[in-house]
Amino acid sequence: MQTHLNRAAASVGAQAIQLDDDALISAADGRALAGGISAMTEWRWRRAGLLPEPIHIRGRNYYRRNEFMRALRNLGTSAAE
User: Structural domain tally of the chain?
Assistant: First the structure.
Protein backbone atom coordinates (compact mmCIF):
# COMPACT_ATOMS: atom_id res chain seq x y z
CA MET A 1 0.00 0.00 0.00
CA GLN A 2 2.89 2.38 0.69
CA THR A 3 4.02 2.17 -2.95
CA HIS A 4 0.56 3.19 -4.16
CA LEU A 5 0.52 6.10 -1.70
CA ASN A 6 3.90 7.31 -2.93
CA ARG A 7 2.79 7.12 -6.58
CA ALA A 8 -0.47 8.93 -5.80
CA ALA A 9 1.37 11.72 -4.01
CA ALA A 10 3.85 12.07 -6.88
CA SER A 11 1.12 12.24 -9.50
CA VAL A 12 -0.68 15.03 -7.64
CA GLY A 13 2.50 17.09 -7.59
CA ALA A 14 3.01 16.49 -11.30
CA GLN A 15 -0.44 17.74 -12.35
CA ALA A 16 -0.03 20.90 -14.40
CA ILE A 17 -3.49 21.00 -15.97
CA GLN A 18 -5.96 23.20 -14.13
CA LEU A 19 -9.60 22.16 -14.60
CA ASP A 20 -12.84 23.45 -13.18
CA ASP A 21 -13.03 22.53 -9.47
CA ASP A 22 -16.59 21.23 -9.82
CA ALA A 23 -15.71 19.03 -12.78
CA LEU A 24 -16.46 15.35 -12.49
CA ILE A 25 -13.82 12.78 -13.26
CA SER A 26 -14.53 9.12 -13.83
CA ALA A 27 -13.37 6.55 -11.33
CA ALA A 28 -10.95 5.21 -13.97
CA ASP A 29 -9.44 8.69 -14.41
CA GLY A 30 -9.21 9.00 -10.62
CA ARG A 31 -7.36 5.69 -10.38
CA ALA A 32 -4.92 6.89 -13.05
CA LEU A 33 -4.35 10.14 -11.13
CA ALA A 34 -3.69 8.09 -8.01
CA GLY A 35 -0.75 6.37 -9.66
CA GLY A 36 -2.57 3.65 -11.59
CA ILE A 37 -4.17 1.93 -8.63
CA SER A 38 -6.61 -0.93 -9.19
CA ALA A 39 -10.37 -0.72 -8.71
CA MET A 40 -9.96 -2.90 -5.61
CA THR A 41 -7.41 -0.50 -4.10
CA GLU A 42 -9.75 2.40 -4.85
CA TRP A 43 -12.56 0.57 -3.04
CA ARG A 44 -10.31 -0.21 -0.06
CA TRP A 45 -9.18 3.43 0.19
CA ARG A 46 -12.83 4.59 0.07
CA ARG A 47 -13.76 2.07 2.75
CA ALA A 48 -10.85 3.28 4.92
CA GLY A 49 -12.00 6.88 4.47
CA LEU A 50 -8.95 7.89 2.44
CA LEU A 51 -11.01 8.78 -0.66
CA PRO A 52 -14.40 10.51 -0.84
CA GLU A 53 -17.51 8.56 -1.77
CA PRO A 54 -18.18 8.74 -5.51
CA ILE A 55 -21.27 10.09 -7.22
CA HIS A 56 -23.23 7.37 -9.02
CA ILE A 57 -24.55 8.31 -12.44
CA ARG A 58 -26.18 5.64 -14.60
CA GLY A 59 -24.29 2.83 -12.88
CA ARG A 60 -20.87 4.50 -13.09
CA ASN A 61 -18.79 6.20 -10.41
CA TYR A 62 -17.54 9.77 -10.69
CA TYR A 63 -15.66 12.00 -8.27
CA ARG A 64 -15.69 15.75 -7.88
CA ARG A 65 -12.22 16.64 -9.07
CA ASN A 66 -11.44 19.06 -6.24
CA GLU A 67 -12.47 16.58 -3.52
CA PHE A 68 -10.51 13.76 -5.13
CA MET A 69 -7.36 15.85 -5.55
CA ARG A 70 -7.62 17.08 -1.94
CA ALA A 71 -7.83 13.45 -0.78
CA LEU A 72 -4.74 12.55 -2.82
CA ARG A 73 -2.82 15.50 -1.36
CA ASN A 74 -3.80 14.31 2.12
CA LEU A 75 -2.56 10.82 1.22
CA GLY A 76 0.75 12.32 0.18
CA THR A 77 1.02 14.22 3.44
CA SER A 78 0.33 11.13 5.54
CA ALA A 79 2.65 8.97 3.38
CA ALA A 80 5.54 11.36 4.02
CA GLU A 81 5.21 11.06 7.79
Answer: 1
* pLDDT tens digits, 22-72: 799 999 999 999 999 999 999 999 999 999 999 999 999 999 999 999 999
Residues 6+ apart with CB under 8 A from 80: 9
CA distance 61 to 56: 5
How far CA 47 is from CA of 16, 23, 50, 52, 64, in Å, comes to 29, 23, 8, 9, 17
Give the CA count within 13 Å in the CB-facing half-sphere of 48: 10
Q: At what angle do helices 65-80 and 2-14 cross, to 10 degrees?
A: 120
